[in-house]
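# step 3/5: fold
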Amino acid sequence: MNKNHNEPSECGAGVSVIIPTYNRRELLKRTLDSLCEQTLGPQSYEIIIVDDGSNDGTAKMVSHYQGTATIQYIFQPDEGFQVAKARNKGLSKARFDTILFLDCGMIAHPTLLSIHLQCHGETANLVLIGMSYGIEAVALSECDLIKHTMAENEIATAFELFSKNHQLMDCRGRFFAKFNFDLEMLNAPWVIFWTSCISVSRSDVARVGGFDERFCAWGGEDVDLGYRLFHAGCKFVLHQSLLTVHYPHEKDIENKEEQAKGNVAYLMRKYSDQWINMLVNKSWSEICEQSLKPVHAQPQASLFEEANE
């Protein structure tokens, strides 16, 4: 009987990092560089790149990393926005049960993978949400600061410098400081299930059916998976030590917001849920505020104020 290549017990504990990409060669290179500098031993992680039809030389660039890290490169034809399908393909090829979803252009702290793996080893059915410096950096001065700091410093030093700049702190970190980062206070923690940097058990993702491939436009496919994981009993944790840097790049914000509207309408048809319905006209932070369980309805404002000083 042949051994199942995807069975995690055959290769021990480890992390499978799944990165979808499309014509983001230089951003992907930055992500790969940071993943090659992890404190976790190279035998304990793999990188799965799912290319959604790039024509910018991504495949050739990735080939240069073969031998430096364990990399699987999967190409699918460009047939429109297929990030849900891409992540499902990555999942089907993963060797390890701990899955880290990482967006192209995210720069990983050297301890990122080791902490993800350790936490999953300690807690079953865990959804682990990392935080990213500069995830909402849109001002030119902030983008230039991130680029300059990354160019002039080693990765670990750059993270230390970013930690002293509250303006670049992940927006979720600033918000959840007032709740002591305890997502169990919320009825809808899935609203911050953003696949920029998040880990979950492959078996839990399989249990809820994976990503919904009917999402064929930007936004919502990650929140949809988070919703199902939450209602399947997974424990959501926002971890302050799981750090990445969101490297600045051009964004068509108006176009993305327009695409997201159609996906919100689809979510509303898919589920009958008061919190899902709020996605139409409320931000993630407003939904978090309103989904607070009654006993936590009055958070400590002083902690939030301290985080914004």
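# step 4/5: annotate
Residues 142 and 168 are 7 Å apart (CA to CA).
# step 5/5: archive (pending)
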